[in-house]
Queue: 2 jobs
Job 1
Amino acid sequence: MSHNAIESTLQENRTFPPRPASEFGFPKWHVDSLDEYKSLHARSVQDPEDFWRDEAKRLDWFRPFDSVLEWHSPDAKWFVGGTLNACYNCVDRHVQNGHGEEPAIIWEGEPLGPRTSHAAAGSNYAREPEVRVLSYRELQREVSRFGNVLKSLGVKKGDVVTIYMPMVPELAIAMLACARIGAAHSVIFGGFAPSAISERVMDAKCRVIVTADGGFRRGDVVKLQENVEEAINHLANHGHIVNHVVVLRRTGHVPPSQRFADGFHQGSTTWHWWQDQMARASEACPCAEMDSEDMLFLLYTSGSTGKPKGILHTTAGYLAFVQMTARLTFNLIPDSGQLFWCSADIGWVTGHSYVLYGILMNRIPTLMYEGAPNFPTLEGGKGDRFWDIIARHRVTHFYTAPTAIRTFMKWGDDLPARHDMSSLKVLGTVGEPINPEAWIWYHKVIGRERCPIVDTYWQTETGGHIGTPLPGAIPTKPGSCTLPMLGIDAAIVNEQGQELGPNQGGLFVIRKPWPGMLRGVYGNRERFISNYWGRVKDARTGQPCYFSADGARRDSDGYFWIQGRIDDVIKVSGHLLGTMEVESALVSHPAVAEAAVVGVPHEIKGNSICAFVTLRPHWLISHKREPDQSLKNELIAHVAHEVGALAKPDQIRFAEGLPKTRSGKIMRRLLRDVASGVEKITQDTTTLEDFSVVAKLRADEE
Ligand code: WTA
């Protein structure tokens, strides 16, 4: 159990009622009272077809749909018979409706430019950052051109294109270009390592990769092109050919071995420069007419077993759900001076839904920032870049993760105090449970005890928010995601699918389909069913429920308190990681015989990774190595190389053997106890763990 869960079981009782819309200059809140929320929610789950038919009117359709839902559990088809295009709904329709000159994307790069005599208005820095603003018309032009680039490389409707890029406007352009021509995108977070890229490219059968020569992060260059090259070589050895790579020139820091001229062939792969290709591309690229249930994107997420899963989202349902959740959760109102900033990387689902699709569909400008919160780095590794960005751009909506909030809290109140953040109206949090202390700090120091906080609970699989306060309607309690989103029939049940009473811990399930739900795990029907639909049946109807893999309870007001994952995945700094992924990386090192990875509560990251490792004695002897710190460092570096820096274990502990039950299952609960308890007592972790005694004692428990 994480420390957040422990705190939330202490029954946080503080309640913060919604404030009048007029205080924020809104004519009204979209949902203005608890009663209004309750009646809307009741209608949305009792008559979902009627409810979603109305919501779908907010999208632009090429052909209207014939029926709202066809449900053959666990397969849902939403808005059947309709055709539309996601890019059209995010970009073209705004141009058509006379909003072409309005800002769509406001982007800020990480590096600060050359020293200028005057700082940017309101900035604390003597040097100006690089800022680009793209209007809807400019975005339409760029997206159309890149759509044509993709077509010229042979990309067709239904193909999957891998995108591995830094947080630059071209990332959004590439995604929208895929949507425009009817290809699905599969975005891989820039922090992943080459083998993680090849795994995902192979699984999705991608032939085209879009990347950049590098990206800026905390003053360093992330070597994206190099990683792609390594992944492609690896793929070629496994018989998978990537036909084309398009590389955006971003950092220019490319070693001589990686410089190439546009159209350079290496093996069966042709390398192109983004800029050269775009210079030649035409601006005429019609939006493909897509069926409601055509694939919009794949996004890989970690599971408890084996390889990451390609979560499949389709066009109309995802768009309908995401435009609604964005609009209601954040009270988005076009033409009212709003500027939305979600600090998540687009490589995660939060970025897909609330940097890009949900925000642009609502015609609200979205801010993208390329880099780290502590660049420029101040004394003690601190930074105030986020507050500087909020002040300079007059951000009205700020959406970030608890792990970031806890870091800012540690950095101290004086950093935000240096900046004028009076533009802020709504604050959001996402990705992991937020501990009440961090919530209160966010409320006081960033929100000036005024801005509502929306603690949004959801998953890659759900497409958008499934539990969240609506800022004008639902009183908040620090640490609770409050009540279900409209259209979400959520419950806490036991293993038998019986709904539990107040404050009884159980499984978080959804009992009815919703438009934003995943439609499958790419290429793995069995996993789709067993992971999400095979565990819990609704005791009242016998129907399979969607199970989120989170444990939670509901208090006497019906508020949800999410306690965290009950499967073998860990949330580290808000990033989902499978323990298996880290274990496989460890055992791929020749020194390692066996590995077991567990999450340990961590003050800032929520969880940290502790790996118990047994070594191969022969390898140690033949390589003249000891089970010492240098071997630990080598194993940590190995995991970073195999999966990515985000998966680096915080602790490696060598053990003689791993504790197992009689049936041979590793006793993770015991390991978790050992890891969280002993951690505080001693840093001397080079001694071998001897689990034999405890293991015997606990052998029957697990
Ligand atoms: C966790 C991220 C508590 C949860 C959008 C879920 C949360 C997993 C919250 C999905 C929240 C996300 N409160 N827990 N507000 N938001 N989670 O797929 O364990 O990266 O199952 O999607 O994050 O992570 P994913």
Note: Residues 301, 348-350, 430-433, 455-460, 481, 548-550, 562, 564-565, 571, 576 surround WTA (CB under 6 Å).
Job 2
Amino acid sequence: MLAKKNIAIIIMGVSGVGKTTIGKLLSQTTKIPFFDADDFHSANNIAKMKNGVALTDEDRHEWLLQLNLLLNNQLQTNSCILACSALKESYRNILSTNCKSNIKFVHLTGSYNKVLQQMNERKQHFLPTSLLQSQFETLEISYSSINISIEKKPDEIVAEIVNELFHQSEIGIIGLGVMGKNLCRNFVNHGFSLAMYNRHVPNEEENIAENFKKAFPELNTAQAFDDITLFVAALQKPRKIIIMVHAGKAIDDVLKQLLPYLSAGDVVIDGGNSYFLDTEKRQAVLSDKNVFFIGCGISGGEEGALNGPSLMPSGNSNAYSIVQPFLDAIAAKDIWQKPCCAYIGEHGSGHFIKMIHNGIEYVEMQLLAEVYQILLSQQYNPDKIAAILTSWKETSLNSYLLDITITILQEKENNDWLINKITDVAQSKGTGNWATIEITQQTIPATLIATALFARYISGYKSLRTTLHKTYNSTSKNNFSIDILQLQQAYELARIINHFQGFWLIEESFKKFGWQSNLSEIARIWTNGCIIRSALMQELVDVFTTSNNLLLSNYFIEKIKILKPSLTKTVSACIENNIPIACFSEAINFLNAITTSNLSANLLQAQRDYFGAHTFQRNDIDDETFFHHQWKKN
Ligand code: 6PG
């Protein structure tokens, strides 16, 4: 057996399909104990069925709860087999409660006539054939089950189950870069059976999967491939495949190779930082073949991939239900031990919010870089700056990014701080750029994301900056001093504005796309595993249960009023002293603008109307009418 965990095999299907026969035979073959769900029906239920009365959901509820208890108890020590009709998705959900990732449904399928014939051949059963039609009517499609036709002989059916469940892998990962490798280890560490594939490129990428398997003892039961056909053939059906290759063309190349070998009902997950509109195109292409495509934002870097990332999947909800147990199992857990993984919604919404996550991340990083720059201007060395930031950890400012910044600042090399030796040119891989394009496309003023992105772009002009520095002699004045508490408060408010803008952007975009948003749930899955996890994010989980607008939430109104003077003073002091603080300054400018009822945009409208007859609305006329004025008098 490839998996390292106990499993409960539920042989499901309508009455008369042969569940008990197959279950018992499977039990003999595998030596796994067998249970028949029929033995757990109450006397009332049995009497009802004998009288030809179909059971209601209510009749089945207690029975299903009892079966779930049985499965959970069995799974503590052993695998088990259960023959149970499990006709509806809601029944299967009850059966799987608290053991979702250990349950394997095997659906025995057959036509009404075939099943009727089998029932007529059967000697004793409490269910009269008259109820067969109602069984077929009740049966809801199971997307996650292994489906086997009863046209096959019992021995063949059992052989197929054994092969699928014990010799095939539950999940496959394509692309063994750092993230892919760590996800592989995360899956096997959670007891899943795994197939791993990395392409073969002569002299460049050879035996990657095999060598990776050899390097880590926990992968001894994983299957390693560099042939995509064999990789696909090694997976349990419906196949679940996670692609971990670079966003863009590489994904399309993999899909092109993969698609001919996939079957209807298989699920492909793209775990990269893909552009959400690309994800939607891919969903459309794959759905033509009835293959599901889930775009899944994954945050947490290498460490998250190994120990628990934050996961943001979207796409067809039935496809999500197939992969949910796998994703939930490997995800980070929040303070309530719930997985930091939630179904974000239809289409590319998962990759969309990962893009916004990264936008928020850019700003969080930039704000810390600005704090560092301000503190450097006070002649503090990196250790002293780290000490100041460490004192902030005790407050609501605590965050993963604060934490790593402290460690970075303390890192030394040959008696000097490593940070002093790193070139001040920041790069980016694209998500901040996409987020900025999206912000402008959608006309939502999430200005900090664009500002943080441009701060990186400005950093890229190193030689021009060096020349202009000499030309303009723009160093900060020596007697400039900044109050640390004031800086702390300024930083706190700038972060609040950043989170306001990020979640506002999500809320507004979701409305435009017609997606359902749940900001509290998004904040929750960002409380652990991801790069922007923080004490503030934890606070937002509650805040968003009462208001979707952070600036209007009672929790923040007073706080913002108190913090605002510190942000204003910090920004003006920095500007007077030639310290570039793009995000701090944009935060206060944005707050001033968004809290001003009368902006100067009336003049903009007048100018537009003057040179282009673009018209304007009047505030002394209470309707939507647009006017043009004859500005030129001759
Ligand atoms: C994460 C990160 C991750 C990656 C960024 C880096 O959530 O784990 O966001 O996805 O570190 O893509 O982005 P830049 O290279 O653009 O800074």
Note: The mean pLDDT is 95.
